[in-house]
Design a protein that fits this description.
Layout (H helix, E strand, L loop, with lengths): L1 H26 L4 H11 L4 H20 L8 H29 L5 H28 L22 E3 L6 E3 H18 L10 H24 L10 H10 L2 H5 L7 H19 L15 H20 L7 H29 L4 H15 L8 H18 L2 H6 L7 H19 L10 E2 L4 E2 L8 H33 L6 H6 L1 H6 L7
Antiparallel strand pairs: 1-2, 3-4
Length: 510
């Protein structure tokens, strides 16, 4: 009897010693602090009891191996990107369409609206068929691959990387957002050849230029594998080797100074030279027919541009807020500097000048908005207003091209100014955000910034690449278009106006 009591008592002590240990191991496997507590509790227990936590710890690890953690798709960022995408659509239709429409003569109003509207639709279709794949998949440093033709493999569950580790948005939403960028870039070129290019020529030119100029630039500047692919120096080198050529060089283009504005501006200038001047250019009045619509269009562009710039951060955080404020301030500064420059030189400030100044400021701050401080943004806006005013007056006369709606003078010049000044004001020494180091997981460390001179040189390489690529592709595309369908409308069609001769309708009925 005495032996039986001793045995029962020993079993009870053993059970009491092992039960809490198992419970802790199940509740927090892998937590170092909890492991230490477990060791302290296990120490007095017998050897068989110490084996129990090991088994308990193994089970969660086995489950983790079976079911990998899904990407962290943030609902707040996702909602933010829906709004940003809609705002960029608003920039194009109706914003850009009305801005351009008001600047041409009334007999060509609908032709411009039609060209912008149909270009938006055309590029949206091409983007889904092959554009997204060539721009945002791995291939070479200069163009992507064909693995996502017709959005193959892109599902509602697919995740698109942002600029923070372990933070994603739905890939389909990223597809839509980038589609709007491609569409508005092509639509911007419409302003250079307004009032004199065949509608069939417009569409064929857009297909060629989009494929061979826009897509390579987008890939070279923006494609990389995302921050989660970078763990150390070795993986950073691997990401750089697989990324776009200009991204790997360290070119900074937050929302499209090179990809969108310089690219489109140069294409517009080449097209204006190729087509020749409008009938009556320099002899007859070719003044805008409705500046009220132009002002409405400029206002819609300004509003929509917040989606363009802040949305390019892909996350609803402080950097997006900085891009938002910089977009507001730089644009306001450019309106004022253009207005006062025109007032001093021409004697009167014009509504057309103020609207053009707004677009110039928006263009110039685009590559810089998420990299520079508020002071830098104001300087960029003020400089852009003055230089773009010169671009549509003095420079335009020097070049001698009939760039009808000043696509190069505003978008080309403004894009170049913004891209180069990004290299200056992104410096942490001047209030900029510098660059992000995904190895140390720090952003803005002055030690990581290459220096103003070095960064401006990198920015210049991006500018030069956009100029050369767009100029060559535009010229070759126009030669092809001329051989296939012809480029310029007949003289009698141009005199009558493209609204009736090409679309069979009029913008106004009196």
């Amino acid at each position: 009897m005495k032996k039986l009591l001793v045995m029962l008592l020993s079993a009870g002590v053993l059970a009491l010693g092992s039960a809490p240990t198992a419970a802790v191991a199940q509740a927090a496997p892998g937590a170092e602090a909890k492991k230490e507590e477990t060791k302290a509790e296990v120490a007095p227990a017998a050897a068989p009891a110490a084996a129990e936590p090991a088994k308990a710890e193994a089970k969660p690890q086995e489950k983790a191996a079976e079911a990998p953690k899904p990407p962290n798709i943030n609902k707040g960022d996702t909602a933010f990107m829906y709004v940003a995408t809609v705002l960029v659509i608003l920039m194009t239709i109706p914003g850009l369409a009305l801005f351009y429409g008001g600047l041409v003569r009334s007999k060509n109003m609908l032709s411009v609206l039609m060209q912008v509207f149909v270009t938006f639709a055309l590029i949206s279709v091409l983007w889904v068929i092959y554009g997204y794949s060539l721009a945002f998949t791995g291939g070479s440093p200069f163009i992507g691959g064909l693995s996502k033709l017709f959005l193959s493999g892109v599902t509602p569950e697919s995740a698109g990387a942002t600029f923070s580790k372990d933070t994603y948005i739905p890939e389909l939403l990223f597809v839509a957002f980038q589609c709007t960028f491609a569409a508005i870039t092509c639509a911007l070129i419409v302003g250079s050849y307004a009032e004199r290019m065949k509608f069939s020529a417009v569409l064929l030119f857009m297909v060629i230029w989009f494929t061979f100029s826009y897509l390579p630039m987008a890939h070279m500047v923006w494609y990389w594998d995302g921050p989660d692919a970078i763990k150390d120096e070795a993986t950073l080198a691997a990401v750089g080797a697989a990324a776009g050529w200009l991204w790997a060089k360290g070119a900074l283009d937050f929302a499209g100074g090179t990809v969108v504005h310089i690219n489109a501006g140069v294409a517009g200038l080449v097209t204006a030279y190729f087509l020749g001047k409008r009938i009556g250019y320099g002899k007859e009045s070719l003044a805008p027919h409705n500046l009220t619509l132009t002002m409405v269009g400029a206002a819609l562009l300004w509003v929509g541009w917040f989606g363009f710039n802040a949305g390019s951060n892909l996350e609803a955080n402080g950097v997006a807020a900085l891009a938002f404020v910089n977009t507001l301030l730089a644009t306001a500064g450019a309106v004022l500097s253009w207005t006062f420059a025109e007032w001093m030189i021409k004697g009167k400030p014009s509504m057309l000048g103020a609207a053009s100044g707004a677009v110039a400021g928006l263009v110039a701050i685009t590559p810089a908005c998420g990299f520079v401080g508020v002071g830098g943004a104001l300087v960029i806006g003020l400089v852009a207003g003055v230089l773009c005013f010169w671009g549509v007056t003095g420079l335009k006369k020097m070049l001698g091209a009939d760039d009808a709606l000043d696509v190069f003078g505003v978008h080309g010049v403004g894009g170049i100014v913004g891209a180069l000044l990004t290299g200056v004001f992104a410096s942490p020494a001047l209030g900029g955000l510098g660059i992000c180091n995904y190895v140390t997981n720090k952003c803005g460390d002055p030690a990581d910034f290459p220096g103003i001179a070095s960064q401006v040189w990198i920015q210049f390489q991006g500018v030069l690449t956009a100029i050369v690529l767009s100029a060559i592709v535009s010229y070759v595309a126009l030669l092809i278009v001329k051989a296939v369908v012809g480029v310029r409308v007949a003289e009698e069609e141009e005199r009558e106006g493209l609204d009736t001769t090409y679309h069979g309708e009029s913008a106004y009925k009196f």
